[in-house]
Amino acid sequence: MSYLYLAPVGLVPPQVLDWIEEAAGEWFTFPIRRLPAMAIPVGAFDAARGQYRSVEIMMALARAAPEEAARLLGVTEADLSIPMLTFLFGHAQLNGRTALISLCRLRQEFYGLPPDETLLRERAIKEMLHEMGHTFGLTHCGNAQCAMSVSTHIQFVDAKDARYCANCGTRIAAASAAAQGAEVL
To answer: Are strands 45-46 and 51-53 parallel, antiparallel or unpaired?
Structure first.
């Protein structure tokens, strides 16, 4: 049997993992399991930028993935980046099995505002859906309300829904079922 694994990378509030697990269970056919928290790889920190290299964390996640992991979603508080972008809300292997989301810039506190747990939950779920969609081969969607729409600023995250559009939803259902060896009716 194949599973979707959730892995906290660094200290992540268990409640956030609960939110993500519940939402993932609504969209994906895999049973969900959690891995113990893993440390952020020492080599991932980019002192010049004051951020963490998401590729380094993704590689560590891939190495930690159990054999029966159809997908592995890492969740971190670390502020992520890649050389060509100033920050990332998340990162995923297109048609791969590893994805990562960062809560850092999803938190209102990052923008100097008071904490908002409801908003954090919505944003975390949207980003989970987005990055998991990439692992199933979905690219960015032109529908601004779809979870697969591109999000280069927090306003774009807030503008989209915590769900896939009809087209992306159909594709996710088929890809998820195929990955489990089931047939979609």
So the answer is: antiparallel
Determine whether 127 is an active site residue: no
Q: Which helix (H) or strand (E) holds 32?
A: strand 32-34
The residue from 21, 56, 131, 183 that is catalytic is 131
Q: What are phi and psi of 101, to 5 degrees?
A: -125, 150
Backbone angles phi, psi at 184, to 5 degrees: -90, 130
- Domains contained in the chain, CATH given: 3-180 (3.40.390.10)
What would the two tokens of residue 35 be? Answer: 């891995």
pTM for the model: 0.94
pLDDT in tens, 61-105: 999 999 999 999 999 999 999 999 999 999 999 999 999 999 999
SS3 assignment for 53-110: EHHHHHHHHHHHCCCCEEEEEEEECCCEEECCEEEECEEECCCCCEEEEECHHHCHHH
